[in-house]
Design goal:
The complex is a heterodimer of chains A (439) and B (276). With 439 residues, chain A is α+β, with helices and mostly antiparallel strands. Chain A has two domains: 215 residues, 3-Layer(aba) Sandwich (D-Maltodextrin-Binding Protein, domain 2); 208 residues, Periplasmic binding protein-like II (D-Maltodextrin-Binding Protein, domain 2), CATH 3.40.190.10. Chain A contains 19 helices and 16 strands. In chain A, the strands form four sheets. In chain A, strands 3, 4, 5, 6, 9, 13, 14 and 15 form an eight-stranded mixed beta sheet that branches. A three-stranded antiparallel beta sheet of chain A has the order 11-10-12. Chain A has a two-stranded antiparallel ribbon with strand order 1-2. In chain A, helix 10 packs across helix 11. The termini of chain A are far apart. With 276 residues, chain B is mainly α. Chain B has one domain: MetI-like fold. Chain B is globular and about 70 Å long. The two termini of chain B are 34 Å apart. Classes of the chains: A alpha+beta (439), B mainly alpha (276). At the A-B interface, helix 3, helix 12, helix 17, helix 18 and helix 19 of A face helix 12 of B.
Chain lengths: 439, 276
């Protein structure tokens, strides 16, 4: 009998269809592709286009295609979704904003709503409507999308970075996932040393890759360190930052030296190859392993990042939807956003992303998927303090520049490699932060 | 034709120059700020690192390509007509898009699955493997290696054409006078190859200093910014960071390098013409 993927009891895809779609989307994640939906009858007089990244969980793209097709048929308009590799999104957005041509609906990464606000249509009506239906918004949603009293991006979903663990390796040192979830950084260091002796290392990127930001900011925050305060004043030069850096130096000795050159996929391979026992990452490693029926899927679990003296934190990558001012289809674009954020469609998106997509609207977080999937019990709802690199400073150019220049990972890298002392590395980071926030 | 040239060459150059003198961010008009972006770059430690990287990367890669290119061209010339297939195969790295081959190299440098490391381990050369992309020194070696692999066929092919155009009589006369192979190479081959050598070096300096794909795919400028070049840092600041005025200022630093390279190379060519 053929296995069938069901959403809320309704048949959606056969297993074969699901895997075929997953394989297609996996290749698409590297190069991207376009999808065009036309209504069945008559030739549409209007068309709308949307740009979206090629999702890390390959089964998500077909579901988004399906929802856009459904909307296109209902409204009698043609719709195109361009799935673009995540790395290429910044250049695409920049080119469109500069040339004032391009897609009607655009995906906005973390600080894009703030950076491009003068080119975006305020979406107060849409944001308020979806909040009435499924809200309230999480504080993070307001921080990123609600700027100068207007909504310039409607927050859609985020994915966050707990730790992905190999339960077999932890079991070998007598620790279950619940034990790992309860660790503070000091106890984690002791466990990491035992894992190191067994050759099953822990690892997090300390390199110029976005995963490094998402691993190292929570470490910094949990020791009480911050890059900037609420007003954007640089405050990184503190005893708390020094404590975090000193800790990272001790942990680095227990990790593969390659972490200094890791890219965003390296820690995925680290876990999938069965070598690594712990790495900060969203559940895409598990999702890919499960989709490909890899035996390691059954050994993977997710736990919160260890607790520091000042709390337990989790970093998030976020995605909002915006509409360019130059769009000739603003009302249609708003309608498409409402469609994608409707509770029924959102539930299907969560299923298709295998729980990877997390909602900014509280009611949407009540979906049974996360409760029914044991490996996601610590993923959603988020119990740690959720933040984005750049928090608690103002959303905008300074935060974006620091994020894309990897200043915090570089500070850690300079200290752990001995290129600079802890104090020198922090002073270096402070200077770099000041140069980027004072513009 | 003039219109096309102006549109494709002059407009982007003038536009970049103008942008570098403003505080423009993407989508905003920006205001004139004079040399502020350039002054900021002078204080930017990552930019200073980038300048050093670009010089090292260009000098080492071009030098290796030139020396190895001559060696390969001489070897191919000796094979003669029988080497047609070899000559065609050697061109492959140069004709296949670098974005594809760099991905293959990226996989070969992977910390866990590196086929190179597996080979080194099997030979007992490096039992713990080489941290190709995780160590600043080895990351530089890796990106230069890929650049050389990519550019060497072009050097060798052009040098081969230059070698084949040298009259055989000169070598025969030298041999009659008792010159050894090395003497012939130093006193005949190299001087007559100099105009070709200079042009190829100029072309390679231009292409190497402006390299983007190899760095972007293999290291994204890391580790510790040791492999950033002007183009990758300009991309990071201008497009990912959205401060396109500063990105333009960074990219403009390529031009003085190119101007100096052009001046010296043209001077060498002129000297060669005088001797000829």
């Amino acid at each position: 009998m053929e296995n069938v993927v069901k959403i809320d009891g309704e048949r959606v895809l056969t297993r074969r269809e699901f895997l075929r779609a997953a394989g297609r989307a996996g290749a698409a994640a590297i190069v991207g592709y376009s999808f065009l939906a036309k209504p069945a009858s008559g030739s549409p007089t209007r068309s709308i286009s949307m740009i979206h990244w090629s999702h890390f969980v390959p089964a998500y793209n077909p579901e988004l295609e399906r929802q856009v097709t459904e909307w296109s048929a209902r409204r009698g308009v043609a719709a195109r979704v361009d799935f673009v590799a995540y790395r290429d999104i910044p250049a695409k957005l920049a080119a469109e904003a500069e040339s004032r041509t391009g897609h009607d609906v655009v995906q906005l990464r973390v600080f894009d709503a703030a950076l491009y606000r003068q080119h975006l249509v305020p979406l107060d009506d849409v944001a308020q409507e979806v909040e009435r239906e499924s809200g309230p918004w999480l504080p993070l949603a307001r921080y990123l999308g609600f700027l100068d009293g207007r909504w310039y991006g409607v927050p859609w979903y985020y994915w966050s970075f707990p730790a992905t663990i190999n339960t077999e390796h932890w079991g070998a040192i007598g620790m279950g996932a619940a034990n790992v979830a309860a660790l503070d950084w000091n106890a984690f260091l002791e466990a990491a040393e035992r894992l190191y002796r067994r050759g099953t290392l822990v690892g997090m990127a300390i390199s110029q890759t976005f995963d490094a930001n998402d691993a190292l900011y929570p470490l910094l925050w949990s020791f009480g360190g911050r890059t900037v305060d609420e007003k954007g004043n640089v405050v990184i030069d503190s005893a708390e930052t020094a404590a975090a850096v000193e800790y990272a130096k001790r942990l680095f000795r227990l990790m593969p030296r390659d972490v200094l050159g890791w890219d965003d996929a390296a820690n995925n391979r680290f876990i999938l190859a069965g070598v690594g026992s712990w790495t900060p990452n969203a559940p895409s490693i598990w999702a890919v392993a499960k989709l490909q029926n890899l035996p390691i899927a059954g050994k993977i679990d997710h736990v919160p990042m260890p607790r520091g003296p000042k709390g337990r934190f989790r970093s998030a990558s976020t995605l909002a939807l915006g509409v360019w001012k130059f769009s000739r289809n603003v009302e249609l674009a708003k309608d498409l956003i409402r469609h994608l954020l409707s509770p029924a469609n959102y539930a299907r998106q969560v299923e298709a992303s295998m729980g990877y997509n997390q909602p900014f609207l509280r009611k949407l977080g009540q979906h049974a998927y996360w409760r029914n999937e044991p490996v996601l019990r610590f993923y959603e709802p988020v119990r740690e303090q959720l933040a984005v690199p750049g928090w608690p400073g103002p959303a905008g150019e300074g935060a974006q520049l620091v994020y894309t220049a990897f200043i915090v990972p570089l500070m850690f890298a300079k200290a752990v490699t001995g290129e600079m002392s802890t104090a020198e590395a922090i002073r270096w980071a402070a200077r770099e932060l000041q140069a980027r926030y004072r513009r | 034709m003039v219109g096309i040239l102006l549109g494709l060459v002059a407009y982007p150059l003038v536009s970049a120059l103008y942008m570098s003198l403003t505080d423009k961010t993407i989508g905003s008009p920006g205001a004139y700020v004079g040399l502020s972006n350039f002054l900021q770059l002078a204080e930017d430690s990552i930019f200073r690192q980038t300048v050093g990287n670009a010089i090292l990367y260009t000098v080492v890669a071009v030098m290796i390509k030139a020396i190895a290119g001559i060696g390969l061209a001489v070897a191919l010339a000796r094979i003669g007509e029988r080497g047609a297939t070899v000559r065609a195969l050697i061109l492959l790295p140069w004709v296949i898009p670098i974005s594809i081959t760099a991905l293959a190299w990226w996989w070969m440098f992977d910390p866990m699955f590196s086929v190179i490391n597996r080979g080194l381990r099997a030979l007992g050369v490096a039992p713990s493997g080489v941290p190709w992309l995780g160590d600043p020194f080895w990351a530089r070696v890796a990106v230069i290696l890929v650049n050389v692999w990519r550019g060497l066929p072009f050097f060798a092919t052009v040098f081969l054409a230059g070698l084949l155009s040298i009259p055989r009589e000169l070598y025969e006369a030298a041999e009659t006078d008792g010159a050894r192979s090395l003497d012939s190479f130093v006193r005949i081959t190299l001087p007559l190859l100099r105009p070709v050598l200079s042009l190829v070096v100029l072309y390679s300096v231009v292409m190497t200093v402006a390299d983007f794909e190899i760095i972007y795919i293999l290291t994204r400028g890391g580790p510790l910014n040791r492999t950033h070049l002007f183009a990758t840092y300009a991309f990071q600041v201008g497009l990912e960071g959205t401060v396109i005025s500063k990105g333009a200022a960074i990219s403009l630093f390529i031009f003085p390098v190119l101007a100096i390279a052009s001046y010296f190379t043209l001077r060498i060519i002129r000297r060669g013409e005088e001797y000829a």
